[in-house]
Design brief:
By secondary structure, the chain is mainly alpha-helical. The chain has one domain. Helices cover about 45% and strands about 10% of the residues. It contains four helices and two strands. It has a two-stranded antiparallel sheet with strand order 1-2. The longest helix has 20 residues, at about 1-20. The radius of gyration is 18 Å and the shape is flat. The termini are far apart.
C-alpha cells in the first residue's frame, strides 16, 4: 500500500512538471511591475508578444545578417505549427 501511494505521488509530481514546462508564455504585465520594459525586449515571444516560456531561438538563412535574435515560446511554436 505504501509503495502504491509513493507511485501516485511520483506521477503527480511528473504531471505537475509537465504542466509547468509545457504552458503558454508568461504574461509580461506582472513582470513589468518590477522591471523596465527595455530589459525584457530580448525575452519577448515573436508570436504572442509575451515573455517566452522555454524559449526557442529561430534561425534562418534569410535573416542571418539581421543581427537580431528571434525567440518563440515552445508552446506557441507548437500551436503555430499545427
Amino acid at each position: 500500500m505504501l509503495s502504491l501511494n509513493m507511485e501516485r505521488e511520483e506521477k503527480k509530481v511528473e504531471n505537475e512538471k509537465e504542466i509547468f514546462f509545457s504552458s503558454d508564455c508568461y504574461n509580461k504585465d506582472w513582470i513589468l511591475l518590477t522591471n523596465n520594459e527595455q530589459k525584457l525586449n530580448h525575452l519577448i515571444c515573436c508570436i504572442c508578444k509575451q515573455i517566452a516560456n522555454n524559449a526557442v531561438e529561430l534561425q534562418c538563412d534569410e535573416h542571418q545578417n539581421d543581427g537580431k535574435v528571434y525567440l518563440v515560446g515552445e508552446e506557441c511554436l507548437q500551436v503555430y505549427l499545427k
